[in-house]
Input
Amino acid sequence: MSRFFDLVSKPAREMGSYLPSPPPKQAAADTQPRLIKLDSNENPFGPSPRAMEAMRTALAAAHSYPDDDCSELRRKLAAFHSVPPEQVLVTAGSTALLGLLCQTMLAPGLNAVTSERSFVVYAMAVHAAGAQLIETPMRNDGFDLDAVLNAINEDTRVVFLANPNNPTGTMTEAAAVDKFLAEVPGHVVVVLDEAYYEYALHLCALRKVEYSRSLDYLRQGASVVVLRTFSKAHGLAGLRVGYGLGPAELMAYCARMRNTFSVSSVAQAAALAALDDQNHIGKTVSNNAAQAQILGVGLSELGYRVVPTSANFLYCDVGREASDVVGQLRNEGISVRALGVWGAPNCVRVSIGTPQQNQFLLKAASKIVAASGRR
Ligand SMILES: *Cc1c(COP(=O)(O)O)cnc(C)c1O
Output
């Protein structure tokens, strides 16, 4: 018997572990091409140059503890979103806020509801709080909000709606969210996870559909917490900074549960500068929209079923064991994500890269498809 099994808490004992993508292997020689990383929905253009500049400046003050409250960033975000600063909570990535919300709202005997095949961190955060996660079946590869409503019971405290959803890339339109929120009972907080907000907003504008009215719900006093992050379109995933916009009282409870000094001074400086660099966001989201089209068509022509995306990745059914395809692509120098853990053994999630990266991926994938046809 292991030494600590009986000593650790029940949630710690029963929790599974998250399997991030394996760290890219260090290239053995300069001649060996670097792995093209299309597995974690990162910005293929990197951080904004203004954020880089701000980070370099902030490094000189790295001996000082950061501002624990991220006051300047909070004020700036509040102004940016036209909400009071008390409704903004900055955390070390928005996943940290998922953890805080669960620690604050949940306990053994209580539950949270989400869809199956959604963001893996929901299960981790809920289980770490000793609570149960109820997952409802999907409809058309996206959230079935009627099923979510039906699953809510008196012990439910939180609903997670990933919009767009990761890993399927599907989006729930504003009208459907309006209707859903009107029916959610008062003892439930709805977390609107908008990690891909900038991408979705741009794609939805092109398609003339209404994406999100999340901040309106907050202004109207609804029990919603809107999650945004600097990890995706802003290209700062390695720095760990995200935030939530929610009712001031709930945000204050979550703030008490935070680790002290969890958002570094360098991350705060980078986020402040990234907010000012709307050029970088513009370049990022327009590349993404154009490439979503090109990559989607290319992968469909190879016989893959590609679900239309509202984010910066494509969910595709490759029609056979996806981990084989992922292994073959890795041998070609490209990393994408197999979705077996999400209960979709024939599916992969491919992040949308630069035009060159995507062409490289399409060439490699067509080579793999041709080879598998010859067998
Ligand atoms: C990437 C992602 C996040 C953001 O995570 P960070 O902790 O801010 O890096 C949150 N929700 C979903 C659905 C995501 O895909």
